[in-house]
């Protein structure tokens, strides 16, 4: 999904990656899909995006191979859930790196809590996004929990991306 132009054919892998996930709404939607939010209304509420923008971004994520669209309900009330594909799940280290970078380089005064990455292998907070800074385990949707800034209970919530169908 291009931001200003189509970068999908560029030889630079950073440019191609930006073309695929460089839109801010897209990264927030991938965050929600990885954390287990699946339905349109729930994604919209959590991200705070308009119906039109969300529908467009979800369509682009499906077309780009980062999410799948799964029907539910009967024929007269057919609706869809969205799940991240392996390509979408593989964006987890990008989200972690971005969150850690933002913690370090963007002002947080008065913003309250932050996203905490918890390795479920050792149960401790990681200060790195790809491997646990405490035990060295590779962090994946299967062994990571997040304590999100929006959570009032501050209990680590396992990611919901590793859904088997």
Automatic annotation (TrEMBL):
InterPro entries per the UniProt record, alphabetical: ArsR-like_HTH, HTH_HxlR, WH-like_DNA-bd_sf, WH_DNA-bd_sf
Every HTH hxlR-type domain range: 12-110
Superkingdom of origin organism: Bacteria
The keyword Nucleotide-binding is assigned to this record: no
Swiss-Prot/TrEMBL keywords: DNA-binding, Transcription, Transcription regulation
Signal peptide: none
A family per Pfam: HxlR
Gene3D superfamilies: Winged helix-like DNA-binding domain superfamily/Winged helix DNA-binding domain
GO molecular function, one term: DNA binding
Cited PANTHER family: TRANSCRIPTIONAL REGULATOR, MARR FAMILY, TRANSCRIPTIONAL REGULATORY PROTEIN
The protein, known as: DNA-binding HxlR family transcriptional regulator
């Amino acid at each position: 999904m291009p931001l200003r132009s189509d970068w999908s054919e560029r030889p630079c892998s950073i440019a191609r990656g930006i073309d695929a996930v460089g839109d801010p709404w897209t990264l927030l939607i991938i965050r929600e899909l990885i954390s287990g939010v699946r339905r349109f209304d729930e994604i919209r509420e959590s991200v705070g995006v308009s119906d039109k923008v969300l529908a467009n971004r979800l369509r682009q994520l499906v077309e780009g191979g980062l999410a799948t669209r799964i029907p539910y309900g009967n024929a007269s009330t057919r609706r869809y859930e969205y799940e991240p594909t392996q390509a979408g799940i593989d964006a987890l280290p990008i989200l972690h790196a971005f969150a850690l970078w933002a913690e370090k380089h963007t002002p947080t005064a008065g913003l309250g809590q932050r996203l905490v990455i918890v390795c479920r292998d050792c149960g401790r907070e990681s200060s790195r996004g790809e491997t646990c800074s405490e035990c060295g385990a590779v962090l994946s949707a299967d062994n990571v929990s997040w304590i999100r800034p929006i959570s009032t209970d501050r209990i680590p919530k396992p990611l919901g991306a590793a859904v088997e169908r």
